[in-house]
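1st attempt posting a full record on here, be nice pls
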Amino acid sequence: MTEWSIVWEARGAFLTGMANTLLLFAVSVLAAFVLGCAAVYALSQGKALAWVLRGLINLMRTVPFLVLVYLLYYGFPSLGVRPSAWGAGLVALTLYHAAYFAEILRGARLVLPPGQVEAASAHGFRPLRLYWRIILPQLVIKTRPLLGNQLIYALKDTAFLTIITVQELTAAANSVQATYFIPTQAFVVVIAVYWAISICLELALKWAGRFGAKRGFDHG
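the predicted structure (as tokens):
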């Protein structure tokens, strides 16, 4: 039996790992994006709140992701909180990437032309509706390359969760290579899967760009 035929025989482990990776990625980036959007809105709602949020965002951006994972999974039990590996990984991914989403959107908000915002305010838009209907769509469309990069970073960060026994794609490859001693083939499969998912993300962002241009949000 050749090495690649062994990989084919072990396809169930890879498929399970890929499904777990995609689930972790999808749930965490959705939650992180919502938190990031909420943080950008909250930054304009008072100096005290903005100061706290800026501190939390900067903290998340300076802490290595792996350290955050270790803290949640191995540190919290000493406080009486015992998260599962999945729970700790999901929370770590969400908090970590929410800070980056917030910073990306905040930077775009600082350079957003004020004309449309002022016009919407003059027509009676309340702050939350103004943010949701006018500001946020433009921020998302204008920052889509940066958001796309952050999505890919989030996808790759799921691989770190093998350290806390989350059975994602990298853990599946580790299991196969340890059992059959075929590290090259096992990790080539992992690279190919990550590459394919990344290409799909890039295509989705291009579609979002065309959609934004049709809706008038993209002005170059």
